[in-house]
Amino acid sequence: QVQLVESGGGSVQAGGSLRVSCAASGYIYSVDAIAWFRQAPGKEREAVAAIYTDGRGTYYADYVKGRFTISQDKAKNTVYLQMNSLKPEDTAMYYCAAGRGYQPLSSDWYEYWGQGTQVTVSS
């Protein structure tokens, strides 16, 4: 089992920045990738970014490329999502997920999920 705890969400004005964190614990050696997904009210869950824990690569959805950066601190078993130039359409609950990540931006390959952290961007 792997436990994931997100933190760092909040409210910010458009153009601002936030960093959310995902702290992993448990049998973390069973996962190959950690990703961020988001879901806004009334909308489908969508991928944001993913990172392979062995450092082989990072992946981003087109709508966040150039604005968001995913990174990890292996010593702390924590993955970060730095979000810059935030837009109102980035408002959503942000979820951290961990799993094999064979298709890194597909939720189908992630079996462990956190409870989410809310990000709200006002115009």
Walk me through the structure.
The chain has strands spanning 2-7, 10-13, 18-26, 33-39, 46-52, 58-60, 68-73, 78-83, 92-99, 110-113, 117-122. With 123 residues, the protein is mostly beta strands. A hairpin with a 4-residue loop joins strand 7 (68-73) and strand 8 (78-83). It is globular and about 40 Å long. It is built from no helices and 11 strands. The strands form 2 sheets. Strands 2, 4, 5, 6, 9, 10 and 11 form a 7-stranded mixed sheet that branches. Strands 1-3-8-7 form a 4-stranded antiparallel sheet, with no helix packed on it. The mean pLDDT is 96.
Fraction of helical residues = under 10%
| Element-level helix/strand string | EEEEEEEEEEE
**Class based on secondary structure composition and strand pairing:** mainly beta
Radius of gyration: 13 Å
Low-confidence stretches: none
Mass-distribution shape:
globular
Number of helices: 0
Major sheet attributes: 7 strands, mixed
Oligomer: single chain
Total beta strands? 11
Average pLDDT confidence is 96
Bin the strand percentage. over 45%
| Ends distance | 40 Å
List the SSEs and their pairings.
Blueprint: E1 2-7, E2 10-13, E3 18-26, E4 33-39, E5 46-52, E6 58-60, E7 68-73, E8 78-83, E9 92-99, E10 110-113, E11 117-122
Parallel strand pairs: 2-11
Antiparallel strand pairs: 1-3, 3-8, 4-5, 4-9, 5-6, 7-8, 9-10, 9-11
Keywords:
123 residues, mainly beta, seven-stranded mixed sheet, 11 strands
Give the gist of this structure.
By secondary structure, the protein is mostly beta strands. Helices cover 0% and strands 54% of the residues. Strands 2, 4, 5, 6, 9, 10 and 11 form a seven-stranded mixed sheet that branches.
